[in-house]
Amino acid sequence: MFEQLKLDNQLCFRLYTAARMVTSAYTPLFKDLGITYPQYLVLMVLWEKDHCLIGDITERLKLETNTVTPLLQRMERQGLIERKRGDVDTRQRIVSLTPKGKEMEERAKDIPLCLAQSIVGHGITVEELKTLAPLLDKFIGALSTGV
Questions:
Q1: What class is the 33-103 domain?
Q2: Mean pLDDT for back-to-back runs of 10 residues, the chain (147 residues)
Q3: pTM of the model
Q4: What is the distance between the alpha carbons of residues 128 and 111, in angstroms, rounded to a whole number?
Q5: Strands lying side by side in the sheet with 52-53
Q6: Cβ distance 71 to 37 under 8 Å?
Q7: What's phi and psi for 146, nearest 5 deg?
Q8: Contacts by residues 139-143 (CB-CB < 8 Å, ≥ 24 positions apart)
Q9: What is the pLDDT of residue 146?
């Protein structure tokens, strides 16, 4: 067997596994909120800047429209967001938080700390966590340039 084809030698497998495990670790934290991890991501975008175009949300989350649209439809049915046509260009859809979606921010404010606390002390330090985000940003930037 070629060394480069061993699963343990694949960075992509580590990233895939880490992403799945992070999403899984968030799941119990979202139970009381009644949301999923992808919904949490959309809410974070809207908490930063409400009244976004769908295209802005897809760009920010690095997802395709056909992935985000069903997610937004479910969130609208849950009463977290509303989608309206743009005033100037009616082809545009503007996504806004409802009062329930805005209230969710207060309820979710401790989630990042809870997740970090569950990781620190299990073989990783706060300092290591702090270096991970910039390194991943650099990695994502390298991939987005067409590697």
A1: mainly alpha
A2: 89 93 92 94 97 95 94 97 86 94 96 89 85 91 79
A3: 0.88
A4: 19
A5: 52-53, 93-97, 81-85
A6: no
A7: 100, 30
A8: none
A9: 65
